[in-house]
Design a protein that fits this description.
This protein is an alpha+beta fold. It folds into 3 domains: 5-46 and 70-220, 3-Layer(aba) Sandwich (Phosphoenolpyruvate Carboxykinase, domain 1), CATH 3.40.449; 225-297 and 390-592, Phosphoenolpyruvate Carboxykinase, domain 3, CATH 3.90.228; 298-382, Phosphoenolpyruvate Carboxykinase, domain 2 (Beta Complex). A hairpin with an 8-residue loop joins strand 5 (112-120) and strand 6 (129-135). The radius of gyration is 24 Å and the shape is globular. It starts with a helix and ends with a helix. The chain binds oxalic acid (OXD) and manganese (II) ion.
Length: 593
C-alpha cells in the first residue's frame, strides 16, 4: 500500500497496543466496500433496505447510550490548559495518552483493524489535508467512504511525508463512563474510544475538519469554520457564493440545499449547494477569501426532512445512503422518521430496534416514544444531491461574497442585519447565540452563546480564535461583508413569523444586493437593517411590509439584557478575548442607551 515509514511505524505501534486479529487496508474500491457491506449485514451491524425503493441503502442502529456527540467527553489536549482555553475540556497530553492507552490496550482483540487513508478536500489540491483513521468498526469505514475521499491516491499524494492526521478509533466496550474523544493538535493526533456514533467516530468530520483544522488554520493563515457554502445563480448566469454559520440543528442543511420560491425560479434564479456543514477558507491570490467544502457527503439530521422542508436532501439520501437510528418500516423494508410525512408505518421497529406503536407517540417524550431518534441521521453522497454545485470539486474553491451568522432567537435578533466592518462582523460572530427549544431537554428559552457556531469545535483557546478572525483583515484586502440572520422570530403566541425554508432566498438576495451596493439600509445600534420595502414579499401569503418592519425591529431592552449576558460570556472565555471585541461591546452598550 505504502512505504511511508511514518505511517507504517505508527500503525505498528497502534496495532501493538490494540492487538487486532488482522489489519485490512481500505483502498476505496467499490468491490471492497461491497464486501464490507455484505459482512456487516451478516453480523447484523447493517440491515440492507429495499433495493427497488432505496437502492444501495442500509440501516444501522447505535447502542442506545451512544446517539449523539458528547461535548462533556470531548477534550483538547494541548500542553498548557491556557492554550485549550476555558471553553474546552482539557487533559494534559501525557496524562491523557496514559489514560486512553489503558482503554485501547487489547481493545481490538478478536476484531479487524481497518486502515482508512482519506483526504479532506480534493486530493492534490492546495486546500487538501490528509488523514489516516484506524478503526475496528465497519460502520465507520462505510461512512468514511461516503463522507471523505478515501483510497490509494491519498497514500500516493502523501508519498514519504509525515504530514497527516493520525486518527485512532475503537468501539472498545461502548462504555459511556470511559468514552473519550481526545484531540492532540500539537501532535496531529485524534484518539476516540468507547463510542460508535458518527460525530464522535468519523474522525474526518468534527475532530479533524474543525477542531484540528482550526488549530492548523491559525498556524498557517487560513480558517476552518462550521459553515455551509451555497451559490446563488442570477438569471444572467452570474453566481455569487455565501458561507453561513448556524449552531447545530438550526437548519444548515436546509439552507444549503434551498430551492428558490416559484416566482424566482420562473425568473431563472437557482441555488447551488457546495457544502452543508464545514468550510475551509483561504486567502486567494486575488485578495479575496476562497472556500471549499472539505467533505464528500452529508451527515444530515433525518427528522423534519421532507418534500417541503428539503426535497434535495430527501432525494440525495434515497440511494447509496446509510441511515442511523431511524424507524424501520417492516412492511416494505424502508425507513421512516418523524416529519417525513403523516403516514407513520403500522408495522415497524423504532430506533432502538423494538416493535413500535405510532399511536403512543408523545411530543414531549420523543426519545422514549418516537419511531426515529431525534438525532437520527442519513449519510449520503454529495454527488447524489440534485443541486450540487459544479464547483464542488474545483480545487480552488469558490470566492465568498458574504459571510452569514445566524441563531435561533425568539425576540432579540432581527430577520437580518449587516455588520459595519470586519472587526464589527467578528464581534457579531463572537456574540452568536441560540435559545433552547422544546425539542431539547431542559428549560426552554435559555440563551446558549455559540460563537461562530464553533463553541464545540474550536481546537484551541476561544479568545485566540477571535484574534485569528480579526487578524484575517491584515492579510486579506477584499474581505466579504458579514451579516447576521434570524429565521426564528416568534409572535406573542410563539408562532414563527417568517416562513423560512425557500423564502430565506429573499433575505439572501438583499444581502447580495448590499454587497453590490445596490440596496439601501438604516443604521441601528446593532448595524444596518434593510428598509422594509427592500425585502421582496411578492407571492408571500400573509406577509406584508408591516410584518417585515416588525421582523426588522431592534428591541433595545432585550439587547441590553444580551449585553450583560455577553459580558459574562467574554469573562468566562477569559483574558485572551481581544481588546477590540471588548471595545465593540462597550460601544454597542453605549449606542443602546
Ligand atoms: C453536526 C453537528 O452533526 O453540528 O453537524 O452536530
Ligand atoms: Mn455541524
Amino acid at each position: 500500500m505504502t512505504n511511508n515509514k511514518y505511517i507504517l511505524s505508527w500503525i505498528d505501534e497502534m496495532a501493538a497496543m490494540t492487538k487486532p486479529d488482522r489489519i485490512v487496508w481500505i483502498d476505496g474500491t467499490e468491490e471492497q466496500a461491497e464486501e464490507l457491506r455484505r459482512e456487516a449485514c451478516r453480523t447484523g451491524e447493517l440491515v440492507k433496505l429495499n433495493e427497488k425503493l432505496l437502492p444501495n441503502c442500509y440501516l444501522h442502529r447505535t447502542a442506545v447510550n451512544d446517539v449523539a456527540r458528547v461535548e462533556g467527553r470531548t477534550f483538547i489536549c494541548t500542553k498548557t490548559k491556557e492554550d485549550a482555553g476555558n471553553i474546552n475540556n482539557w487533559i494534559e497530553p501525557g496524562e491523557c495518552y496514559a489514560r486512553l492507552t489503558k482503554l485501547f490496550t487489547g481493545s481490538m482483540i478478536g476484531r479487524t483493524m481497518y486502515v482508512i487513508p482519506y483526504s479532506m478536500g480534493v486530493v492534490g489540491s492546495e486546500f487538501a489535508k490528509y488523514g489516516i483513521e484506524l478503526t475496528d468498526s465497519i460502520y465507520v469505514v462505510l461512512n468514511m467512504l461516503i463522507m471523505t475521499r478515501v483510497g490509494n491516491n491519498v497514500l500516493e499524494a502523501l508519498g514519504d511525508s509525515p504530514d497527516y492526521i493520525k486518527g485512532l478509533h475503537s468501539k472498545a466496550q461502548l462504555d459511556e463512563e470511559n468514552r473519550y474523544i481526545c484531540h492532540f493538535p500539537e501532535d496531529n493526533t485524534i484518539w476516540s474510544v468507547n463510542s460508535g456514533y458518527g460525530g464522535n467516530v468519523l474522525l474526518g468530520k468534527k475532530c479533524f475538519a474543525l477542531r484540528i483544522a482550526s488549530f492548523l488554520g491559525r498556524k498557517e493563515g487560513w480558517m476552518a469554520e462550521h459553515m455551509l457554502i451555497l451559490g446563488i445563480e442570477y438569471p444572467n448566469g452570474e453566481i455569487k457564493y455565501i458561507s453561513a454559520a448556524f449552531p447545530s440543528a438550526c437548519g444548515k442543511t436546509n439552507l444549503a440545499m434551498l430551492i428558490p420560491p416559484e416566482i424566482y425560479r420562473k425568473k431563472g434564479y437557482k441555488v447551488w449547494c457546495v457544502g452543508d456543514d464545514i468550510a475551509w477558507i483561504r486567502p486567494g491570490k486575488d485578495g479575496r477569501l476562497w472556500a471549499v467544502n472539505p467533505e464528500n457527503g452529508f451527515f444530515g439530521v433525518a427528522p423534519g426532512t421532507n418534500e417541503k422542508s428539503n426535497p434535495n436532501a430527501l432525494h440525495t439520501c434515497m440511494r447509496d445512503a446509510i441511515f442511523t437510528n431511524v424507524c424501520h418500516d417492516l412492511d416494505n423494508n424502508t425507513v421512516w422518521w418523524e416529519g417525513l410525512n403523516n403516514n407513520p408505518p403500522k408495522n415497524a421497529l423504532n430506533w432502538r430496534g423494538e416493535k413500535w406503536d405510532y399511536t403512543k407517540y408523545d411530543k414531549n417524550d420523543k426519545i422514549g416514544t418516537s419511531g426515529a431518534h431525534p438525532n437520527s441521521r442519513f449519510t449520503a453522497m454529495a454527488k447524489n444531491c440534485p443541486s450540487l454545485s459544479s464547483e464542488f470539486n474545483n480545487p480552488a474553491g469558490v470566492p465568498l461574497s458574504a459571510i452569514i451568522f445566524g441563531g435561533r432567537r425568539a425576540k432579540t435578533a432581527p430577520l437580518v442585519y449587516e455588520s459595519t466592518s470586519w472587526q464589527n462582523g467578528t464581534f457579531v460572530g463572537s456574540i452568536m447565540a441560540s435559545e433552547t427549544t422544546a425539542a431539547a431537554a431542559g428549560a426552554i428559552g435559555v440563551v446558549r452563546r455559540d460563537p461562530m457556531a464553533m463553541r464545540p469545535f474550536v481546537g484551541y483557546n476561544m479568545g485566540d480564535y477571535f484574534q485569528h478572525w480579526l487578524d484575517m483583515e491584515k492579510i486579506v484586502p477584499h474581505l466579504p461583508k458579514i451579516f447576521h440572520v434570524n429565521w426564528f422570530r416568534t409572535d406573542d403566541e410563539g408562532n414563527f413569523i417568517w416562513p423560512g425554508f425557500g423564502d430565506n432566498m429573499r433575505v439572501l438576495l438583499w444581502i447580495l444586493d448590499r454587497v453590490e451596493g445596490k440596496a439601501d439600509a438604516d443604521l441601528t445600534p446593532i448595524g444596518y437593517v434593510p428598509k422594509a420595502e427592500d425585502i421582496d414579499t411578492e407571492g408571500l401569503a400573509g406577509i406584508d411590509t408591516e410584518t417585515i418592519k416588525g421582523l426588522l425591529s431592534v428591541d433595545r431592552e432585550s439587547w441590553r439584557e444580551d449585553v450583560k449576558n455577553i459580558k459574562d460570556f467574554y469573562n468566562l472565555i477569559g483574558d485572551r478575548v481581544p481588546k477590540e471585541l471588548w471595545k465593540e461591546l462597550e460601544e454597542l452598550d453605549e449606542r443602546l442607551k
